Amino acid sequence: MKHTIPSRATGKVVGYLLLPLLFWLIPSSWLEAHPIPCLSRLLLHRTCPGCGMTRAVSCTIHGEFRKAWHYNKRVVFVFPLLLLVWGKGFQHAWSDFVRHLYRR
């Protein structure tokens, strides 16, 4: 009997692999020039704890640690947590992929 891999399991694995690759391919300079608008800053005229986090994570991925620290100091906590969450998610996606691959 021929075994097929469900497209959902394959899609999850591919998605988990593409996400960091795409984030790495987008230059930090592009995110610096096109920051994501902060609703807290727009509506309340106050900064929020997450302001600058996207740019900080991008700078961390590209090895620009001083810039990352400048954008948001909390990146030293958030980035390792993001890696942990990504790793757990990828582990589950890979397990599903392999389980479907060898299912009889």
Would you kindly provide a written description of the structure presented here, covering whatever features stand out?
This protein is mainly α and 104 residues long. The chain has one domain (7-90). It has 6 helices and no strands. Helix 4 packs antiparallel against helix 5 (65-71). The model has no long low-confidence stretch (mean pLDDT 89).
List the helices and strands and how they pair.
Elements: H1 7-25, H2 28-33, H3 39-44, H4 53-61, H5 65-71, H6 75-101
Helix pairs in contact: 1-6, 4-5
What is the gist of this entry?
It holds the Pfam family DUF2752. It comes from Thermosporothrix sp. COM3. With 104 residues, this protein is mostly helical.
Keywords:
6 helices; 104 residues; single chain; mainly alpha; 71% helix
Number of strands: 0
Largest sheet report: none
N-to-C terminal Cα separation, in Å?
A: 9 Å
Mean pLDDT: 89
Query: Into which percent range does the helicity of residues fall?
Result: over 70%
Relative strand content: under 5%
- The value of Rg in angstroms is 18 Å
Order of helices and strands: HHHHHH
Structural class: mainly alpha
Number of domains: 1
The 3D shape can be described as elongated
Low-confidence stretches: none
How many helices? The count is: 6
